[in-house]
Fold these 3 entries.
Entry 1:
Amino acid sequence: MPRQPAKSWRALLAELTETPSEKQRVAQELGIRTWTLSKWVTGKAAAPRPYTLKKVPDLFPQHRSEMITLLRQEFPDLDFPQDTVKEHEEEPLIPIPAVYYERHLQSFAHNEPMMATWSIIHLSLIQLATLLDADRSGLTISVLPCTPPRTGSPVRSLYLFATNSTLEGGTTMVPRFINFFGAESLVGQSIQQGSPLVVEDFGDSTYLNHLNGAVSAAAYPIQRYGATAGCLCAESVQAGFFHRAQLQILQQYADVLSLAFRNFYQTLALFRLPLLAAQPHHWPPFQPPVAFSSFREPGAEVLQRLEDAVIEGSINDEQQ
Amino acid sequence: MMNSSNTTYFINPEDPTEQTRLLQQALYLTEALGGLFPERDLAGVTSVLDVACGPGYWALDLADAYKEQGIGVIGIDISQRMIAYANAQAQVRDIEENASFLVMDVLQPLDFPDGQFDMVNARFLETFLPALRWPAVVQECIRVLRPGGMLRVTTSEVASCNYAAYERLFQLSAKALNLAGQGFSHSGHVLGVAPMLNYFLRQAGCIHIQERATLLNHSFGQPYREGLTQNSLIGFALLKPFLLKFQVTTGEEFERLYNQAEDEMKQEDFCAITPLTTAWGTKPTSGS
């Protein structure tokens, strides 16, 4: 018997998430609980956030158009940034020259480990700027390692290690101070969920602690066999900047960057951290003025003490 | 096939980290030097040669910036890996039409006819060029310039600093380079190439010679500070085998100085400056 068209997006969602496994998959992809999904279906929950709703059609490729049509009936103002992705589907993928990969493999095989880390990270950022933004339209690409946790404890945050920007005057690759990113941020959510996240417009999202001026972004966890070392993040000053070819490149470089790290973590429990501008208020007096003057990663102990201070400061702020 | 393992370059030019270091340095160097070619406008220029171009950043940026004007840039370097990388970059940036890179040893006669280029650019030749070979190399650059064309040479001197270990590492580098025959200093504390540039250009027959100094400030709070200090430390780490080869330090002393320099750079009153000198001159036309 031919399938009857669904009358609402909620009805279609109910139909498509009929099985528990499918319901679990969709909830996981959307970053919500299964009971929240059930409430959406029954209409007992408040309207989902636009940012989350926008993700729904892409979870059902075979019913994508139908879902968008039904969603627009209830939310006529909702635009679907994934349409942008679709428009670019035919764009040719950007080939990464073999010599680009070769350098990373050489560093990995022949350089002293700390130097290899520095070289692979910085060369990746330089190569990515060329591959993703040859026109220098305003892209900032960053590598954020997990802040090393104390033995037996979960990862609580990431920190900005190196960044490269095609923005005017933004090419300095070494951050001046240590900035931590937690569950409030796109990069934090990406590693917590263990999957890439793309934001077409931060205005429609609740993420905090992206770079000043960033409108869209893509975050890719740096992983090895399911354990996480950090995150690769690209942020653009243009809405909907990232399309399929660019996202594929970012995934490939997240894989390349796994060569740069030695510590991968299984357990993550990210804290919600204060805004970047507020973090220095929580630093203890021992914070050195410049943490990255050397190419070597800051010591785990220094990072942990700073992270402690920022987290404790954040908790105190909330209690007041 | 050319073998870059015999190069006099003070760091192994095939080392992938050295390539990354040069690329990172290029991100602020061109800006610090006032742009790609601040000495003159490029009206009428159609062909440029970049000597010892490394991974080709300057040449690629020039070719990209002047794509519409049809300027063609050729970069040459002894390192096959650097050249392969530079050509790949040209492909990715879609400027293969006007940027190309060739493996060539600057210490040998260049494989170009007389008068092929409107401009020749050469930066940091002191990193590999024996002092005695400077006159011949400058002369060769002039040979491939057309009459009226311009040769521009940029060189660096070791940094001076208010902290002991960081400054000492630069002094050791100068000492080793002088022992390797790549400096002009009698004391060995500096390289001494900068004062020679004007002389070399004059000897090669250049006219309208000019010089300009640029200061790269590594001090706390300065715009390129983090990149410069990080780049210096990577450079020292790569330079270690060269310093040990010329016995200007021991492995133990190097490690001690290196660790101390890392600590020094974290101090708020840390101050250091690397002076750069650019000299340029014109190849005379028959009437000049």
Entry 2:
Amino acid sequence: MMTKFQEREIHDFLRRKKLSAVIFNEVYDHFVIQISELMKENLSFQEAFLKTKIGWQYELEMVNADVLSFKKIARIEKTVLKSRFRNIILSSISLSMIGLAAFLFLNDYFYIVQVSLAVLCFSMLVYNFTFKKMKFREYIELSFHPLILRNLFIGCILFLGMGYFTQSAHFRDFEIVKVFSIYTGLVQIQLLYFRSKKVNVLI
Amino acid sequence: MYGYQMTQRAKELTEGELEMTEGALYPLLHKLEGDGIITSEIQKINGRDRKYYLLTEKGKRQQANQEAEMKTYLFNLNTIFNI
């Protein structure tokens, strides 16, 4: 039987791994059961704890969150976040492609979509702040989110590239630039949406 | 079923042949949950939050399909090696 002090030791060890609440609760519960089971096999708490920590060493190793981030997070957290980001990127690309198909037939459609996305983005921001779904510190973190920074970087290359190769002052009117701006808007909206649902997307 | 239970059940059913890496299990469960294959509910056990995972209807259909695919695959493999 584990004492409160021993449970506290596990708690403190996992706290240092800076896991999000959802993953923390799951891993903590797993650690407590696994250690308790090992203790039933006549291992002391310290031995069982060490054995469990060794088993989880790879997943709990602190790694760089992203190429564009200095933050260190546990590998398990990074894997979960990467999978979530992949879904955000894929759904944004799919919707942008639908947008592209629409732009080919309806030229004025782009401005309607752009304004709608901006309104939606602003509304979600207001909603998140009004209903305390997001703190100001989290908003700042979201503003420098690796997905947004990456989009900014790609956007700059795209704008400069289009301007340079076409030598046209109207390079912003090209379909690819329009689609990309819709894509970035969709990524931002999804990040705000996940935040409103208290799903961790911050790194 | 919850995470630890899954690892133990897999070990038990395969008589220790299949040992799941515990840490690799949770990202996979989160992905399946995001894809709507499984759903979860949290219960308080001994003062701790325990997350139980359940198959959704979509998950049950996918399980049936993959089971059928796997059976066909194993049947074909068996046929080839028994020639």
Entry 3:
Amino acid sequence: MLDRMRRLFVATLLPLIALAESETPPEGPPWRRDLLEAHKEALESGTPIFLYFTKTY
Amino acid sequence: MLPDPALRAVYGKATWLYVYRDFSGSESDRRAERVLLRLGVSSWPQHFLVDPTTWETLADTGRSKESFLRAFEQARVAGRGAPDAHRRLRDAEARAIALEEGGSVALAQKGIDDEDIVVRNRALAILAKRDVKSIAKRALRLLEVENDPFRYEVCRILKEQADPDSASALCGIVREPKGSRNPNVLRIRAVEALGTCGTADSVEAIAPFAASGEYFNGLTGISIDALVAIAARHPKTKGAVRATLKRGYPVPPADGEARAMAACTALARKIHAALGEKGAFPDPYDGRAREKLMR
């Protein structure tokens, strides 16, 4: 029984936890993923760049 | 927090860049790493506002709605960017990628003095593997580069090379980690390097951290190890090192909280062992035991 639960955890929950560590940006502002694109846009609009650094845990 | 209606007002006041590392070494991971290197980021998560022309950090947004809004109010860019700022960035990215994708030692020798910090970081990575002696030779100048990932790597190389000529520059970083986003980690790397490079003169710079009694800070134990190593190489420092270590017995936590107590006792044991004390380590380690050990 314990073994089955462990397997279920590894197969289903672990990937979900990993995914929750935000490969996807948080909801809200219009995110860019490319520095060059963001840089060009910031220079043209005269705005600062907001950088959000995260990683897989 | 970002979907909060109160923050929608700032969506148009910045360009939003999401930088995610998965450490796979893939192209997208290397692209993210280049942004980290450019901004000198070495811990996660972090978020702040930068000027796209100067790359100066304008404000740290913090983690509350209030601090976020305040940061956006404070952040002012230098102006509508220098006309060549984007071209320079694009060219620098291309030079960095050229180094990533099988750059030669000759290209790295050129890149280590590049105007762009990402190029310098990529060049350093190549030289660290294939021409490490050239890094040790330039160490003093390289330690002045105010970029944490860069200085971490130089410190790592110096630790391996055990080069006493770099001791004074490393002490400078320990005393004042100028321009660091993560001064404690930078100090840790510099003190680690001093463990092999340090001279008798280095003891004074390391001593405050070895004697801090901060049992939750990795810098404390590393500073103790470095002093012990220096004392072994430079016997005339033994008295000063011994006095420093004695001062460093930590104050036991007043509330006796288990995790703090364990960390405190572990540090006290480390000092006791480093001093080579003959008597048994006191059990329990409390205020009275500390006073006795410090005599």
